[in-house]
Amino acid sequence: MVRTIEKQVREPWLLMEDFNSIMGAEDRMQGRDVQDSETKDIREVIEECNLAELPTIGRSYTWTNSHVFSRIDKALVNDKWMLNMPPRQVHVMNPLFSGHSPLGIEINMKCDNKRRPFKFYYCMADHPELGQIVETN
Questions:
Q1: What is the rounded CA–CA span in Å between residue 53 and residue 44?
Q2: pTM, two decimal places
């Protein structure tokens, strides 16, 4: 899929996801030894599509089952991204609901400071965790 995108897209692009694959031994702590077959596919995609991995800050590993720690979630960019976007770091945040750490990236975009009216969607009132999220006084 990534190979198809690379051939069609001529603009800067960022691919941030769980690749479910490590790129080398440094991407895994504990567990079994890293085999070439585990890293082959992602290395080929990165090379064929001329992608680069953005540097990360925060947690060293993005997934764990409490025994093995791996860095399988990554942010990859093409050369047009590197040339046209300011340097960025990917924030590896603390996991909340699973063994995966969410990734975040801050992109400065021009935004108008026009004040907009507050909007409340009634469907949010039915959310089971509304009381835990919103404090009422």
A1: 13
A2: 0.68
